[in-house]
Design a protein that fits this description.
Length: about 260
């Protein structure tokens, strides 16, 4: 499929896209890599993006695949949190004239976030944005995709402990890193060192955003076969785990 998409892009006149499960991205890697080399505006749509697959088991649960895609130069990887962020991701992809993009979508149902309560999804166009703030934050929670909902729940837990947490949705690292320094500082101010990132995948690469003293909650092991709610709980991808890690960091940095 990847070769066909690249051929259509080389012919011109169309914006080709195709989709499959994220775990099968490995089979398409040569085509994705060539699209990146040739600066082709191809869109690769990948679904079933995490251990949220549940009973399909570890053979079908992508763990390392997000990281594997993010290290390909010139490829923009989007992992939106809800329907509205998905719309913004698609708009950003269509406006991106050079280089391929990958959009990573979940299988499990996630609610559409109430944007009267949270920030507008238009912030996703800048790669990362403050989706929920708390005045003067003591800790920052960073998440992508379905884990944004977990981070927002953790923010509520922390508020009950009088810990002020900012939640940042980061659907596309590559676009965020291309933003002006002042915008990046406004989202992730260097003075706030207590940071926790959560993503249902390999933790490699998150250190750049949480720092040496931050905490990354992810998976550096293969998944298992069970209902996805059970997997998230047993493997520590929960709001309680995020809140506990953030609370410990807050005690370390905020006196």
């Amino acid at each position: 499929m990847g070769g066909i998409l690249n051929g259509l892009a080389l012919h011109g006149g169309v914006r080709p896209y195709g989709g499959t499960f994220l775990v099968f991205a490995d089979y398409m890697r040569p085509a994705i890599r060539m699209a990146a080399m040739m600066d082709l505006p191809v869109t690769f749509v990948f679904t079933h993006d995490s251990i949220g697959l549940g009973e399909d088991g570890p053979t079908h649960q992508p763990i390392e695949h997000l990281t594997s895609l993010r290290v390909i130069p010139n490829l923009a990887v989007f992992r939106p949190a809800d329907t509205l962020e998905t719309v913004e991701a698609w708009r950003s992809i269509l406006l991106r004239r050079h280089g391929p993009s990958a959009i990573i979508l979940t299988r499990q149902a996630v609610p559409v976030l109430d944007r009267s309560r949270y920030a507008s999804a238009s912030g996703a166009a800048r790669g990362a944005y403050i989706i929920s703030d708390c005045g003067d934050p003591q800790v920052i929670l960073i998440a992508t995709g379905s884990e944004v909902h977990i981070a927002l729940e953790a923010q509520n837990f922390l508020a009950k402990q009088n810990v002020r947490a900012r939640v940042v949705s980061m659907p596309c690292r590559e676009i965020f890193e291309s933003q002006p320094p002042d915008y990046k500082q406004s989202v992730l101010p260097s003075r706030i060192r207590a940071r926790v990132a959560i993503e249902a995948g390999a933790t490699l690469g998150w250190g750049k955003f949480v720092g040496l003293e931050g905490k990354v909650i992810g998976l550096d092991r293969f998944g298992a076969s069970a209902p996805y709610q059970t997997l998230y709980r047993e493997l520590g991808l929960t709001a309680e785990a995020v809140a506990e890690a953030a609370s410990r960091l807050k005690r370390s940095f905020v006196r």
